[in-house]
Write a structure and sequence with these properties.
Blueprint lengths: L1 H32 L10 H17 L1 H20 L6 H25 L10
Length: 122
């Protein structure tokens, strides 16, 4: 166990050194590649304006997303009506998708608790 801890510390040290050496260059390159998205001058007023634009743009997109949701739901209803014609592969894919969703839910719950497991601890 102590050797694994030493290996982990060594890897963390190497990663830290790599970030210290290359982090600044990566940051500069990232800003340079995305300079078309940077608003100059960066003032509080401009940030508030952009925040409002984002909020109201998202708000305006709700009707389109609402319509898409109902179309998707109608498609699921149609599949359910014709479930006797459903292939085994499609049913297996749907089951796998459901299991994956449940697994992500469980992982999300664990992450939300700070990666702790609840239950009896002797």
């Amino acid at each position: 166990m102590a050797s694994k801890l030493h290996q982990l510390q060594s890897k963390a040290s190497q990663a830290s050194q790599f970030v210290a050496k290359h982090g600044s260059a990566y940051y500069k390159q990232l800003l340079e590649n995305n300079k078309q998205h940077i608003v100059e001058p960066a003032t509080v007023e401009k940030c508030q304006e952009l925040s409002k634009q984002l909020f109201y743009t998202r708000l305006a997109s709700i009707p389109g997303r609402y319509e898409a949701f109902w179309k998707e739901l109608d498609g699921v209803k149609q599949i359910w009506k014709n479930r006797k014609e459903l292939k085994v592969e499609d049913a297996g894919l749907a089951a796998l998708f459901g299991i994956e969703l449940y697994a992500w839910f469980c992982v999300g719950e664990i992450a939300g608790r700070g990666f702790t497991f609840t239950g009896y601890y002797p």
